[in-house]
């Protein structure tokens, strides 16, 4: 399966973005629109301090139908009480008015600083006229949802006659759980809402839910999917495969552009007792600061791999059975470090992707997690980030 | 309660250290000795890849008696199979021979690189003569157990007629669990082994087990306690209080000297549903990279506090009830950021200790965790650390 060279919004979908005055420069407001109402599904953060748009979004998505998504960056509208809820609702109403659609068919997202009220009048004014500027390039809207991302992210691929397009943003405060950062998935395939929900959850489970930039779960994580049906029905199995693939590709894009990141870190765990244990260990590996700095420093530190597997106290681990590979090279088995060529492994580790594979030989469970290295850039970005 | 200005080994205890050739310079081998056999207790790492000394130590401590501890730094003797076990045993035997005591009264520790065999002949040769160099200053032996620590750590205090002294090392790969990094506790109080074990576990539970430098649990964590009885019996309750206090003080010393750390980070959680939930949330706060970089950057980022509490999915959290203080200043309540003086709070955050207090108002559970800020120094140290 392959992504298109240039992403495009599927048939009937369009988007626009603009600066409405939240950021000093650059787009801070994005609109996604389908010319017909679409089946819809969504998953949200499990964080217990969800943002106002997440609180409203959970209700809105119950109907399984959407026609537009409005997103602002810079301010996340989290920790803002009832006023925050009112402001999120007003934003959706303004978008509905602009597009002449039902307010309940518009879902909202906000990302940025927590604990600051949204200057909703800027959004209400900004939305006016956005309906006239709709385009087919998803990167236009991807720009408007960025915070500390270094570039806009979107990808498209084909499934039969249909197109599947994902627009996303990530960067920091990212270990989604039952949801993801901000990701919007559009397709012109015809899929009813209940099935769409099921397919989305399947895909998210092995992609965005296995992503961690820094172990911190955002209060605004949202992944919304719309299917407007304009390209007709598709083979369900084929579509699920495409959706899984596309979500994993976007997951890798988000990991690679994690705050300060220079490398994609992929941790694969095989032959664990259960899939659940494999996923837990893969996450422990991808989240370990010592593994992350090892990826950054390109040092094949086997000890840190053993340590990170070993600290999964409740998983079945038999030290004598552990087999480890770094970027395809066998580095540990039979309770001992192998006699691998260190210079060669250091070179592999210096590439753009570091892959650690751990085989436990205690069952058939497997799981893969995605993350990034930990560099001075992360510290710099987050120590100098001022909350007001 | 107060620590002595200058730590000293309790009556009957002594120690020495030397360079035996593992490190290029500086002490790498330490010996602790009691002139009479002492009651003993210990807790060890829960990591599933324990070092050879930990595997042997778990057996040795069963008898509840020790007379000496031998520790080397630079190589941890972890992931080294049967040869590693044999080498650890030989190290203990060499120490027993030098001190003319029973080999089963000597416990071993090793700290340093994982996955490398211990050049045991260097240790066997090095131990010879150490019995002649015994001293009463615990800092002498504290030197020999250091890895990336920036200074040797020891403290003493009095309990009635008895003295209580702790020697420790920490720095990185530190989130102990049911144990701690390398910590040795000596007292001349008379306490039988079963009670000693119970007292040690009580103290460790609220001190070293609530410490996290980087969420990574070492494979060598050991905390060994010896009580030789030379000062006679003590009031149990008073001794427990002193032991708790001393362990928390050592915990703070270890946190403050975490790799690259500039500040001690203390996170207090009150009025949680249970102590267990309070401890879990306190750990989530102290481990969050975004809280740690906020401490480093001295920015009162309330959003990161909400996020870290909120990502404790299985704890009882009612957003409307949350009350947060930073270094004593009220910063969040009633679902909103308070109108606090930001300049003043930034100044408080610029000090040597950052204290975040979260009151949940859903019960009576409480817990405090200890950690440090996350700085470029941690990245530098761990990205440039070469495993061979």
Structural commentary:
2 copies of one chain form a homodimer. Chain A has 388 residues and is an alpha+beta fold. Chain A has 2 domains: 13-256, L-amino peptidase D-ALA esterase/amidase; 264-383, ArgJ beta chain, C-terminal domain (Ubiquitin-like (UB roll), Roll). Helix content of chain A is 32%, strand content 28%. The first copy, chain A, has 11 helices and 14 strands. In chain A, strands 1, 2, 3, 4, 5, 6, 7 and 8 form an 8-stranded mixed β-sheet that branches. In chain A, strand 10 and strand 11 form a beta hairpin. Chain A starts with 12 loop residues before the first strand and ends in a 5-residue tail after the last helix. The mean pLDDT of chain A is 91. At the A-B interface, helix 8, helix 9, strand 12 and helix 11 of A face helix 8, helix 9, strand 12 and helix 11 of B.
Short description:
Chain A has 388 residues and is α+β, with helices and mostly antiparallel strands. The first copy, chain A, is 32% helix and 28% strand.
């Amino acid at each position: 399966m392959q992504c298109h060279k240039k992403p495009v919004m599927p048939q009937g979908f369009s988007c626009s973005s603009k600066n409405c005055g939240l950021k000093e420069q650059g787009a801070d407001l994005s609109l996604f629109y389908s010319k017909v109402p679409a089946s819809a599904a969504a998953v949200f953060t499990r964080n217990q301090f969800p943002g106002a748009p997440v609180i409203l979004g959970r209700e809105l998505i119950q109907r399984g139908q959407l026609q537009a998504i409005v997103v602002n960056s810079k301010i996340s509208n989290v920790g803002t009480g009832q006023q925050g809820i009112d402001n999120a609702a007003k934003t959706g109403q303004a978008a509905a008015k602009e597009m002449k659609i039902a307010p309940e068919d518009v879902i909202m997202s906000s990302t940025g600083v927590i604990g600051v009220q949204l200057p909703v009048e800027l959004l209400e004014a900004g939305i006016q006229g956005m309906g006239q500027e709709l385009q087919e390039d998803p990167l236009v809207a991807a720009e408007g949802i960025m915070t500390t991302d270094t570039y806009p992210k979107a990808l498209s691929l084909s499934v039969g006659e249909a197109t599947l397009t994902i627009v996303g943003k990530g960067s920091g405060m990212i270990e989604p759980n039952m949801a993801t950062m901000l990701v919007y998935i559009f397709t012109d395939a015809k899929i009813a809402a209940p099935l769409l929900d099921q397919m989305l959850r399947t895909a998210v489970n092995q992609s965005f839910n296995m992503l961690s930039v820094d172990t911190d779960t955002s209060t605004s994580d949202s992944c919304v999917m719309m299917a407007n049906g304009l390209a007709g029905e598709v083979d369900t199995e084929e579509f699920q495969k495409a959706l899984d693939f596309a979500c994993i590709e976007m997951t890798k894009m988000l990991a690679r552009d994690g705050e300060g990141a220079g490398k994609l870190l992929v941790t694969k765990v095989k032959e664990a007792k259960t899939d659940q244990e494999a996923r837990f260990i893969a996450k422990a590996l991808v989240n370990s600061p010592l593994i992350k700095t090892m990826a950054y420093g390109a040092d094949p530190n086997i000890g840190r791999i053993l340590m990170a597997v070993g600290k999964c106290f409740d998983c079945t681990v038999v030290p004598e059975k552990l087999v480890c590979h770094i970027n395809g090279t066998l580095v540990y088995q039979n309770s001992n470090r192998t006699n691998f060529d260190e210079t060669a492994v250091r070179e592999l580790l210096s590439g753009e992707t570091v892959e650690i594979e751990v085989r436990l030989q205690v069952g058939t469970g497997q799981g893969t997690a995605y993350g990034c290295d930990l560099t001075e850039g992360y510290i710099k970005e987050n120590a100098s980030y001022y909350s007001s």
